[in-house]
Amino acid sequence: MLFNELRRHSKLAAKRHPMYEKNRFGKFFMYFMSAFWIGYLIFFGVSFATLFKESAPNMEPYHLLNSGLIFVLILDFIMRFPFQKTPTQEVKAYLLLPVKKNRLIDFLLIRSGLSSFNALWLFFFISFAIFSTIPRYFGIWGIITYGIGIYLVMIFNNYWFLLCRTLMRERIWWILLPIAVYAVLGALEFTLDSSPISTFTMNLGEGFIEGNILAFLVVILAIVIMWFINRAMMSGLIYTEINKVEDTKVRTISEYKFLERYGEIGEYFRLELKMLFRNKRCKSSLRSIAIIVVLFSAILSFANVYDGVFMKNFIGIYSFVAFGTVILTQIMGYEGNYLDGLMTRKESIYSLLKAKYYLYSLGVIIPFILMIPAMIMGKLSPLSGFAFAFFATGPVYFMLFQMAVYNNKTVPLNEGLTGRQSSGTGFQTLVSFGSFGLPMIVLFSLNTIFGEVVGQWILLGIGLAFTLTSHIWIKNVYNRFMKRRYTNMEGFRDTK
């Protein structure tokens, strides 16, 4: 009964959310993209079944796929970072009632385990099973039990990801945990002649197909163990957040006094820097995206994995756009915590928007420096680097700054697990996808019509045009925000 009541509260909170109407359109787009990827997974499942039959006639296709199951799990783990957020559960309100804290954590874990993301890979594995030799030997029942087993494995991978993601939000050094685990698995697989990891996953998958109870019990036991580890960890983190334990620590932080010479713009520049480097949620987002950008830059510079034209352009664009997108999709959301104070000063919002633009425009210098080795190695031309940088500060930031007009949800600065559910993210996710997709579409179109060099010059020209006229469209954003200020302020107050 408690779980059903909490689920009903979550649905009511989503419907009453100030960004509910915007979020409905974003969810529609996400459903469309999900259907698109489901079609791709089914296509790949059928293709792999046919390919394995032809390439290894002496071995069953499902044995080949099951032996590589660990690689699918690693890919699934990586894919969850951009698409799956750490679940949250509002706790404070329920602690005033006779409700145990562990029951709230159990609900959070159940909701995470029942996420539709965990069932996404079934479209690949089920389509593969249907077109492989499984129906011939095991019938429909073999396909059903195989699907159930794979679903349980994905639930285990979900809780493993949840553990790592939550720990990394607290301390970035926890990124060494999954790296160490996968490094050990890789060492066992590739240094031993028996290949124990692929052998284990192959036998496990065959156990699923045969309906072997022991195979299911092994995965269920692993899920239970991961459940209790997550519960113990989250219980401690929730206690820390509710009681503000970290607030008792004394920190020495720079005051950025050199910005005082720039007047009001300098003050808001300093405010933005303090927000990014003092608050846990902002720091976590920046650290996560910094790791991805550094990793992508290193791979592009020193490896040959992504030497294709498409991947080189994608990594280049992603690196320049990522730093701004991770924060600017929620522009004004962080300020919602103290917006009433900002509104007491004339033109303060305009100065704030300009300071934000200057800061994140200077931020593209970081990925440009990281891309210098790729330019020296001939993987990326300097023209491409400048074109991507100015297109990010131009059309991409122009699009992201429009969110300042429509965002009316307060984003907590330090709460990671105990805040309200992030129900207003559908529209923001749509804009985030657009910030990555728009440059790729424009670049591909220009390269097709005019050639690569001319296309990059045109891309650079478009970026410069938007960048040099930034004061005009920022003023427009400010004017439209002020027309909606009372509606937005009401939303910010309701979601604190």
Topology:
Layout: H1 2-15, H2 20-55, H3 61-67, H4 69-83, H5 92-95, H6 101-113, H7 122-131, H8 134-170, H9 176-191, H10 196-210, H11 213-243, H12 263-278, H13 280-302, H14 309-328, H15 339-342, H16 348-362, H17 365-370, H18 372-376, H19 382-401, H20 403-406, H21 426-450, H22 452-468, H23 470-483, H24 485-494
Helix pairs in contact: 2-3, 2-7, 2-21, 3-10, 4-8, 6-11, 7-8, 8-10, 8-11, 10-11, 12-13, 12-16, 13-14, 14-19, 14-21, 16-19, 16-23, 19-21, 19-22, 21-22
Number of strands: 0
Sheet-strand content, in percent, reads under 5%
Structural class: mainly alpha
Shape: globular
> Main β-sheet, in a few words?
none
- Structural domains: how many: 2
Features:
496 residues, 76% helix, 24 helices, mainly alpha
Descriptive overview:
The protein is mainly α. The chain folds into two domains: 33-248, no CATH class; 257-494, no CATH class. The protein is 76% helix and 0% strand. It contains 24 helices and no strands. The chain has helices at residues 2-15, 20-55, 61-67, 69-83, 92-95, 101-113, 122-131, 134-170, 176-191, 196-210, 213-243, 263-278, 280-302, 309-328, 339-342, 348-362, 365-370, 372-376, 382-401, 403-406, 426-450, 452-468, 470-483, 485-494. Helix 13 (280-302) runs antiparallel to helix 14 (309-328) and helix 21 (426-450) packs across helix 22. It is globular, with a radius of gyration of 25 Å.
Question: How is this structure best summarized?
Answer:
The protein is an all-alpha fold.
